[in-house]
Amino acid sequence: MSSEAPGTVRPGGRTARVREAVLRAAGDALAEHGFDRLDLADVARRAGVGKTTVYRRWGTVPGLVADLLADMAEQSLPRTETGTLIGDLRANARLVRRTLTDPRQGRLFKAIIAAATCDARTAEALHRFYAARIREWAPCVEQAVARGELPEGTDPHEVIRAVSAPLYYRLLASGDPLDEAAADRAAEAAATAAKAGVFVR
Q1: What is the pLDDT of residues 128-170, one digit of tens each?
Q2: Which superfamily does 76-195 belong to?
Q3: If 0-12 CB within 10 Å is exposed, 13-18 middle and 19+ buried, where does residue 70 land?
Q4: Same fold, 13-60 and 76-195
Q5: Alpha-carbon torsion 61, 11, 100, 113, what sign?
Q6: How far is CA 124 from CA 16, 98, 117, in A?
Q7: What percent of the chain has pLDDT over 90?
Q8: What dotted CATH number matches 13-60?
Q9: Pick from 127, 113, 114: which is nearest to 157 by CA?
Q10: Which residue ranges make up each domain of the chain?
Q11: pLDDT in tens, 175-187
Q12: Nearest-5° angle of CA 80, CA 85, CA 88?
């Protein structure tokens, strides 16, 4: 087995095609059946590759899920720049909302989050995924500080977390509608709090 951790190698050619097929199959299986029923042999069958290929490259279900999350972070849409804080935060909230309400992606995130509560390696991979997304969007807060829209010392990461947290609450806890109006309210609440200095370090 390779000494590289799953998700750290970015191969090309046939190896890249195999990785893409396996990760797509793993995402489909997770969305359909959840983490507990994710099986490497089933993923290999779905992807049309040999079981030994999957076991050799990923080794375990958590290893495969970690690589899936790394790939999802890479494939996420880039940050939108509108020129205003509220415009940027609204774009972020609407992107999160579209992802969570997508029939496949929403089920996939629910399965991974559930798995992360009882599997340390999956939890670590999930933390890396969200850290990458927060880093991607943090510059919109930094730019707002530079424009004078926000007070000096505002923590960019905390502002971005404040945008998505209410949306995940609706997805995972309350079951309230996760519509565009909810996304816009989350962005507006985060922007208002940030302007009031709530997120100043």
Answers
A1: 999 999 999 999 999 999 999 999 999 999 999 999 999 999 9
A2: Tetracycline Repressor, domain 2 (1.10.357.10)
A3: buried
A4: no
A5: positive
A6: 24, 24, 10
A7: 66
A8: 1.10.10.60
A9: 127
A10: 13-60, 76-195
A11: 999 999 999 999 9
A12: 20
Please report where in the chains the tokens 């958590």 appear, as a residue. 62
Please give the pLDDT value at position 77: 72
Q: Which residues pair with 154 in a beta bridge?
A: 200
Q: What is the rounded distance in angstroms from the CA atom of residue 71 to the CA atom of residue 94? A: 21
Listed residue (88, 131, 116, 119) closest to 172, CA to CA:
116
Q: Could you give the CA distance from residue 169 to residue 110 in angstroms, rounded to a whole number?
A: 12
